[in-house]
Amino acid sequence: MLTKPFILVMSLQVKRRNPMAFTFRHAQGKIRRLLAIHMPAADVGASAAWYAEHLGLTILNLSEASAELAVTENGAVLHPKLILTKTASKHRLNYVKNGRNRSMVMMHASNLEGLRDKMAAAGAHVTQPHADQEEDGCGRFFEARDPSGNIVQIQANDGELPLGHTKVEAIFNLEIPVSDVRKSARFYADVLGFQLIREPDDQLAIAKTGPFYKERFGYSDVQEFGFFLFRHEERTALHFEDDAGHVQECLVLQADDIATLHEQLASKGHTADERIDVESGQMSLHIVDPDGNRIKVVPAEKSGLKAKLEEMAGEENIAVGSF
User: Fold this and answer.
1) Burial group, residue 241, by CB count within 10 angstroms (0-12, 13-18, 19+)
2) Which of 46, 120, 173, 206: disulfide with 106, CB 3.0–4.6 Å?
3) Per residue in 92-139, pLDDT tens?
4) What stretches pass through the bilayer (predicted)?
């Protein structure tokens, strides 16, 4: 289990569009955040319109082959982004457990019932609100199926006050079925630098990555994104093939120092393919987790104080940490 290897990279006063203060506290040479989730889509346009209309996501880019969407707040993009890619493959980010289809992607909406009722009235495929187990502290949920067949789970915390809208406020958790929970937990924590929330058992491990928000959804000092590693005998791949025959990794991670991460992976016996995008010239690493899931790691889009300040805008002056 990871025991406080985190360092505060830098702290500064900046003007930022996103009013939520956060800090990065990740170890050097490790993963900075989950940048994007890649989802397969049979019809990119219909699926993108569904996420925008029903869940309130913003469409950032759209073509026949792919779409990039995100939750936005006051014009700022909240990570991870959602990338839809056209594919004839039947693979979806769902899995079956105890005879029931389960979502792998979880989103947050404080006005859970209001959002669910709005979607149902518009003809969207949604379930009734429910709890996984009564009084388990995990809140309330409902599931919705997008036009391509991906199931997403919407969550709200018990006792959380609903905000005055009916839309999603974050993409913030992912369920990953794994064959060996402890082995997978060691990989995501020791190799990639995710923080384990508790000691893993045979059935479940919870790992977090990304910046720490000062306050979010009623919790203090909470990280941006969580991974729930569930023991499951049947493998559900976190990658798929697009219509051009290219493998698309569902997890796109971001690291400050790709070279250092590559060295650390090699020192621990993990192979990582280094690739250069012919159009952008960007280098990326392509690694494989213990269950054979392919994961893509890209460098931070900008580095250095000047580049960080160029990203900031707005009038509100707040304290944030390393970007």
Assistant:
1) middle
2) 173
3) 999 887 778 889 999 999 999 999 999 999 999 999 998 765 444 578
4) none
Specify whether the CB–CB gap between 162 and 111 falls below 8 A: yes
Give the mean pLDDT of the chain. Answer: 85
The distance between the two most distant Cα atoms of the chain, rounded to a whole number of Å, is: 55
Alpha-helix runs per DSSP H in the chain: 44-55, 112-121, 181-186, 258-267, 305-311
Give pLDDT, residue 133: 55
What CATH homologous superfamily does 22-278 map to?
Answer: 2,3-Dihydroxybiphenyl 1,2-Dioxygenase, domain 1 (3.10.180.10)
At residue 322, the 3 state secondary structure works out as coil
pLDDT band with cut points at 50, 70 and 90 for residue 300:
confident
CB 296 within 8 A of CB 34: no
Q: 138-156 b/e with 16+ CB inside 10 Å = b? A: ebbbbbbbbbbbbbbbbbb
How is residue 142 written in tokens? 């409902």
The β-bridge relationship of strands 58-62 and 31-41 is unpaired
Bridge partners, residue 196, by sequence: 207
**Using CA atoms in the order 25, 28, 30, 36, what is the torsion angle rounded to 10 degrees?**
60
Q: pLDDT tens for residues 18-56?
A: 446 788 888 777 899 999 999 999 999 999 999 999 999
The DSSP-derived string for 271-292 is -EEEEE-TTT--EEEEEE-TT-
- Structure confidence at residue 11 (pLDDT): 33
